[in-house]
Fold:
Amino acid sequence: MATAETHWREPVIGPEQNYATVSEHLSDLVLVQRTPLWWYAGFGVSMLLFLWLVVAAVYLLANGIGVWGVNIPVAWGWALANYVWWIGIASGGTFISSLFYLVGADWRNGVNRFAESLTLFAAAAAGLMPIFHLGRQGLFYWLFPYPSVMGIWPQFRSPLLWDFFALLCYILNSIVFWYIGLIPDCATLRDRATTRRAQIFYGLLALGWRGSARHWRNYKIVYLVMAGFMAPMVVSVHSIVGLDFAAGIAAGWHSTQWPPYFFIGALYSGWASTLLLMIPIRRLYRLERIVTERHIEVIAKLMLATGLMLAYCYALEAFQPFYRGDQAERDAYLYGAFGAHAGSFWVRNSLNIFLPQLLWIPALRRNRVLLVLLSFGIVVGMWFERFNFVVTALAHDYIPSYWFTFSATIWDEGILYGSIGLVLAGFFLFIRLLPVVSMFELREVIRRKERA
Amino acid sequence: MSGETESAYGLIGAFADPHAAVAMARHLRRDGFRRFEIYSPLPLEETNEFIAKEPRNWLALIMFAAAIGGVVIGFVMQYVIAVIGYPINIGGRPLNSWPAFIPVAWEICALFTVYIGFAAFLAFCRLPKLYHPVFNAPGFERASQDRIFLCVETRDPRFDNQQLQSMFHEHRAVAIGEVPL
Structure:
């Protein structure tokens, strides 16, 4: 066992890398390299998708949510599935950054910047969904506890309001957590920039960072405490999303298992989306010596482990309605598995549970093409999981006369695909303007390795 | 002290090896120097010993206070709204249903900690401060890349250009220069 482990122990950074090479390589990608063709192509496609979001959103705001497939009883449709999906994708990045910082995993430093940036844009996309979903979007500020002339206040016993606070605080905190990690790297870019414009841009972002002993000491303290808060925060955020459903009385929703179920699913889609973006960028930016096989291997293993936890959740989800013996719950589960939306149920099982079992085999785990495909499958599968979960419980409630078959419209699709454009466009801007891997953390990794 | 160093901010040396810079700093401290600073492209835990001993770690304490403040404010807000501002009697359940107030109190606690912590971090680092004399030092742009810099300020009562020059040489500084004010 131990020998097998040491046999496959790729270094977390190429042995020839030193302080100068990582600074050069990563800042030249931003400062010197001419914008590559694939970037224009990717950014262009993303912006087209984003345009789709703008059109769909304007149409939605002008006409109301009746343009979607939602109706009573299926009042929560794609927008809620998108919401849960995006917030799940966001969670993975924060978890890599914070939890694996706290446990001191050395592989974290190669991937946390990618993952955190994805978090930022995914959380922003998630935040749009509930607002779109309000019947009167302009009144979303009613969620804030402010002294209104109507004399009414938000209901703080409702998980939906918890969710509003959780998401708002999470997005705000993610911005600072991401930005504070960038400050020393912006100082490097400022110092390496040759054009006046770049010097001013990165100089402002760096806030005058000098890297003095006092700066670093304060930095380490504040980053450690922030990481200590972000890790439990991300657990709470997605658990509260699960509670939105658990507090509802629809058959199939009213169960205490959803907070961990949702959180595990969130991590799963977070790892998958991180790999999905990391593997191509690693190749396009020639980062093989910085984001090594080891990083990919670790995340692939995490994905396998999380997938097994999710399989347990799915099994529990199937077990509980039958164990409890509630007719309506049993029917709702069977409707989800074999009813009008059975396709999404089996897609989710195949892409999230069955296919990722290939990752047990080391050779397949190291096949990057397969890994990208599996990750893509998981990201897609997680959307179908969310869709199946949100829609089938509502479509098959207690009273048979209430049953309903949901079907989406093109405006549902516009919001989903458009939000993907929003996230990818943001991500493309990030990889063009900022170092994709944290340079000062790589220097720390190099120093630790030298001293070891 | 020569005339030209009067108008300078300090004397700076660049090191390729963190050990050499730290050894020089220890030497300076032994000799009674007080006003010197290490600039490095990565955190060096050895440099903590050169920061003036503070009785308490104020940054961490401020973040702790922010966390407590966030919980208290978050909880009191919910209590006031649910019990006083808009009491709803649902089947005689208590108005102060405190377990339901924990999640929002926690989120506000995290928000306060991160934001007040960030503000306090900037304040303790005296940032943002886009201009600092040390940026005038020749080659200082490598302080954020691959060199460790040690700057002794002319304000230090023991500052002596000649002695410091030889000290930098002794500790294998790869470059020595004056920092204009």
In short: The helical segments of chain B are 3-6, 18-30, 58-85, 102-125, 161-170. Strands of chain B lie at 8-15, 36-39, 148-153, 175-180. Chain B has a mean pLDDT of 91. Chain B touches chain A through 60 residues (CB under 8 Å).
